[in-house]
Amino acid sequence: MTEADGRHGLTVLGATGSIGTSTLDLVRRNPDTFKVVALTAHSRILELAEAAREFNAELAVTSDPARYQDLKAALEGSGIEVAAGPEAVVEAARRPSARTVMAAIVGAAGLAPTLAAVARGARVALANKECLVCAGDLMTAAVADSGAVLLPVDSEHNAIFQVFDDERREGIEKIILTASGGPFRRTALEDMRAVTPEQAVAHPNWSMGAKISVDSASMMNKGLELIEAHHLFAMPESRIDILVHPQSVIHSMVAYVDGSVLAQLGCPDMRTPIAYALAWPARMKAPVERLDLGKIATLSFEAPDLVRFPALRLAREALRQGGGAPTILNAANEVAVAAFLGRRIGFLDIAAVVDATLARLDPKAPASIDEVIGLDAAARRTAEDLLGSVVAAQ
Ligand SMILES: NC(=O)C1=CN([C@@H]2O[C@H](COP(=O)(O)OP(=O)(O)OC[C@H]3O[C@@H](n4cnc5c(N)ncnc54)[C@H](OP(=O)(O)O)[C@@H]3O)[C@@H](O)[C@H]2O)C=CC1
Ligand SMILES: CC(=O)[C@@H](O)[C@H](O)COP(=O)(O)O
Ligand SMILES: [Mn+2]
What we know:
Blueprint: E1 8-13, H1 18-29, E2 34-41, H2 45-54, E3 59-62, H3 68-74, E4 81-84, H4 86-94, E5 100-103, H5 111-119, E6 123-126, H6 129-146, E7 149-152, H7 155-163, E8 172-179, H8 189-192, H9 197-200, H10 210-218, H11 220-233, E9 240-244, E10 250-256, E11 261-265, H12 271-279, H13 293-296, H14 310-321, H15 325-341, H16 349-360, H17 369-393
Parallel strand pairs: 1-2, 1-5, 2-3, 3-4, 5-6, 6-7, 8-9
Antiparallel strand pairs: 8-10, 10-11
Helix pairs in contact: 4-5, 5-6, 6-11, 6-15, 10-15, 11-14, 14-16, 15-16, 15-17, 16-17
Domain 1-deoxy-D-xylulose 5-phosphate reductoisomerase C-terminal: 150-233
Function: Catalyzes the NADPH-dependent rearrangement and reduction of 1-deoxy-D-xylulose-5-phosphate (DXP) to 2-C-methyl-D-erythritol 4-phosphate (MEP).
InterPro entries: DXP_reductoisomerase (IPR003821), DXP_reductoisomerase_C (IPR013644), DXP_reductoisomerase_N (IPR013512), DXPR_C (IPR026877), DXPR_C_sf (IPR036169), NAD(P)-bd_dom_sf (IPR036291)
């Protein structure tokens, strides 16, 4: 459970990313509490090596086998074990000395290592929402089988987790997920056609990786979070509302049958939900700006616009349809977002590619993780094939 030296063993998957570095910032401030076991990354080898040295990690892993020699050279003489490849990331997640695994890889690439942490019954601080979107039923079944504890890190789900009375579920009426509306909340549909990746990643409230920032701009992020909430809290789609709240101060709410609505509030800084997940069920200090509602003065709310943000509608329909539809939605979205960031398609083409991919494939429910991986791969191939035709049709 804990290290021989009494500290809480922690592995960070995706250590070089936005969530990974925020996690390590908290670890840096609490050296007597946490012991870093393994750190993983993909391409940012120097940052990975630097963090591994700073935190005296047992193991550093790059998921890219072609970067093994670079990582080995960067850690020469440190005594830190080095490994490479997707299977090595899974092995890192399996290391038993880490009581908690922070799952902060972006995309479905995080599925296998997150499942490995779940399978050994670890505490899994889950940032990687795509895991639950593409394999939610299988993941929650694996959690039930192994006795793993899933601690939501995504700010909305962490908020819900803090105010959701799981012991008295019959008292819960619905979940209200808040959404900032992203950088294009007030942009006309016609103008969205020409927005650039730089504009799309410029989130008004949060500093995040490129992929989730684009998802926030298209509101696919809220669609993914709808599916994530369905799996984390076993709530039907019909009892999960989405409400645009541009200030990102109320991170989400739970409405009860007696008319009470419980919310979690805070300044938008991921170190709050990360600290909650790392310290749970206790609390730890987080070096974040304190909320001053008097200074903010106004909190506003509006309904989401499903015409300008069709991704939200597609995600809700995929959740209603069930089976493999969310797996297809997620994989197609990953392909389309990468193509948008690479300037191969326009912003509005993202939802069009997802829609067309969903229309092409049989959404039969995957019965195993291998079937999820197969459906994910088929959806990626289909989405890649569709990139050209969707653009040509605009
Ligand atoms: N950022 C945020 O505030 C929030 C993020 N999340 C979720 O958390 C997850 C991480 O997001 P974020 O930190 O923003 O993303 P980043 O892009 O900042 O970081 C992603 C991390 O994953 C690694 N990675 C990328 N591709 C692969 C791969 N194929 N195999 C293994 N590792 C890989 C990256 O390595 P490298 O950089 O070395 O290439 C990096 O360490 C996402 O699922 C996101 O939706 C949820 C809520 C808030
Ligand atoms: C910080 C976090 O949890 C993000 O998922 C955030 O919610 C994105 O903001 P949007 O509400 O704009 O999607
Ligand atoms: Mn979120």
